[in-house]
Amino acid sequence: MSTVLKWIVRIFGVLIGVLLLIFVVAAAMPAKADPDVGENHGAGASSVQPSYTGLQREFPALNETAANPTTDAKAELGRLLFFDPVLSNNNDTACATCHQPDLGFADGRIHAVGPTGVEQTRNTPGLWNVGYAQNLFWDGRLDSLEAQSEIPLTHPDEMGVADTAGLVSEVAAIDEYEAMFNAAFDDGVTLANIENALAAFQRTLISNNSPFDQYAAGKVDALTPSQRRGLALFRSGATRCFECHTAPTFASDGFRVVGVPSDDPGRAGVVADGLVGAFKVPSLRNVALTAPYMHDGSLETLEAVVNFYADGGGRLHGQENVDVFVQGFELTDQERLDLVAFLYALTDESNMPEIPTAVPSGLPVIAPTDNPARAEVAAHNVGGNSGIDLGDREPMTIVVQEGESVQTAVDRARPGDIIEVPYGIYHERVVIDINDITLRGIPNEAGEWPIFDGEGVRTEAVIASGNNFTVGNLHVRNYTDNGVLVEGVTGVHFHDIFAENVGTYGVYPVRSTEVLIERVEVTGVDDAGIYAGQCENVIVRDSVVYGNVLGIELENTIGGEIYNNHAYDNTVGIFVVLLPQLTSKVSANTLVYNNIAEGNNHENFAPPGAMAEIAPSGVGILLLATDNAEVYDNTIRDNKTTGVAVFSLTSTGAFDVNEVDVGPLPENNWIHGNTYENNGYDADPFVKDLGIPTADILWDGTGMDNRFNEEGASTFPPLVPGDGWPSFVRRGYTNILGFLVDQIL
Description:
Elements: H1 3-28, H2 72-83, H3 95-98, H4 145-154, H5 164-172, H6 175-184, H7 191-202, H8 211-216, H9 225-234, H10 241-244, E1 255-256, E2 279-280, H11 302-310, H12 333-344, H13 373-380, E3 397-399, H14 406-411, E4 418-422, E5 425-426, E6 430-432, E7 438-442, E8 451-453, E9 460-464, E10 469-477, E11 482-487, E12 490-500, E13 505-510, E14 513-523, E15 528-533, E16 536-541, E17 544-546, E18 550-555, E19 558-563, E20 566-568, E21 572-577, E22 588-593, E23 596-598, E24 619-624, E25 630-632, E26 635-637, E27 642-647, E28 670-672, E29 675-677, H15 685-689, E30 695-699, E31 707-709, E32 715-716, H16 727-744
Parallel strand pairs: 3-4, 4-7, 5-8, 6-9, 7-10, 8-10, 9-11, 10-12, 11-13, 12-14, 13-15, 14-16, 14-17, 15-18, 16-19, 17-20, 18-21, 19-22, 20-23, 21-24, 22-25, 23-26, 24-27, 25-28, 26-29, 27-30, 28-31, 30-32
Antiparallel strand pairs: 1-2
Helix pairs in contact: 1-16, 2-7, 4-7, 9-12, 11-12
């Protein structure tokens, strides 16, 4: 052997050795994995059982700490301290000075102003139901009411205490306080116990008996007709208020950019990966009492708030990164009045604590404040207070009479009733909140189903929040936002529905549990024909979707089963996805089998800013950031970009890393036994721009334990892990691919 050849062999051997070493190191490295969200994943219904309506929801646990369990003695002590100016440096400012009970525990100002006269940059938030909040302050800088108390106590422009030891001594010198502290705490008067008592008191500020709550409990006349219409708008796909202001707290602990013009960094000023201009979603409980609104107090009335969101929030001002749920919407003048009327129905001061006439320090207590909003509340909340006798009759079948609206028949219903809709054309939106209701159409002699026609101006055909709800044998068309929307319930059955040109979704169960969708046909919607979002245990079967942006979508849902469906001529045929900034933080355990996904090459016609806008045209089945999906025995053909795609959130380039509050990796997905034909012949520009060759299967190389057992299918990368690969080989290979993807992106 020549010297040159020997050197070539040696060099080749060294390279092979280096590559093997790299692979061994990669295989030994811990796998890059998403955090386990556990059982508190946020998917599924939270409705109370048994109940009269599905609107009654379980309140979350109070934010009580193990070190400071609430007792009556602590809460009573905290109440007196809350109103006592002794806690301030100059004995002139109490907690109640800025959090006035008559003003919804806010202060009625645009910006908070302390005793020094210095105007702050943010609006004072109300305190009703603060005991349920997991993030405190507008920017969420703290998660404990105990820790929160120290900020205003020591802030120089608030209560201004510089010498906390001196404060403790001053309080301990008051005999009544010393006795109360000794009764409430083992260690008497301390700064920590002052904060503990204040926190305990604030956790008693519970508002849960508003006209809305009474309506949800079965007092059907507790809301006025205007307020009931407003409730329907609040949870409609037009306004999507309910997506962020979730019952029963009508708040959420997320942070969202709504686009109020401001230089305030919001969440970005607290954490490195926080969104610029994102603020905590406040509770709407007693919101009518706390004007002005928004983090900067820039909107004076609830009407102004509704107009702000109707105009698209910050989108009107060209602001970037405005939340996907702030899209703008069209409302008539009456609908605007109805939506505001519903917000008044969230008012309840029945648990108002007694304002002390005197406090142990002997210092003056704030005087009552006249709040003109209370008169407005009284003017709006004029519903009745009569309950329903659930035993007044047996369940029955109610047939919509000629000339009668469907809603009129629904309003006569009781749990267990069947409402039959004879063939005809109905121009209305039907709202159903009662449990155990069946709404079904009666076809004519030709077998045609009754038609709900929104005439291009109504938002939905049906909105329901009743547990154990069945709806079917209907043709819905020409609605602006959705066909049939069911929100927050357990037990829903959609069957035999044809939906066309109904806006965003054809059938739309959200935050629901035990959902069955079968024999549904949807076409012409600008998001998903069949959509289940933030749900638990969903079956979609024997349905047909075509001419939509997304055919079938399971979003942030756990326990899905999609089978025996036909998805064609959509932008994407079947889409299983985990998206950020939603209540549910999980997408897992989905079976996709025995479907036909063919010719899904429709141009993406989602509206600008909508989440569906990210979907590339020409994909049969797309798994995005989901885990534990099994895709098998499907026929996948004639999809121009790819048959099956498995991608992470971050590799799409559609999400700012600061927006991603979920595990972005697709993990433990198994693709096997499918039939492929003529996929990947003309990739969407999105895929072409990534430089990825077309194939039957596209994988971005991210996520551990994804397996592809597809004999004869083309793939990219050309080598993909299979079910027979040893786990350490899969780990090493995926770690290397993940590293390369990170470098490219």
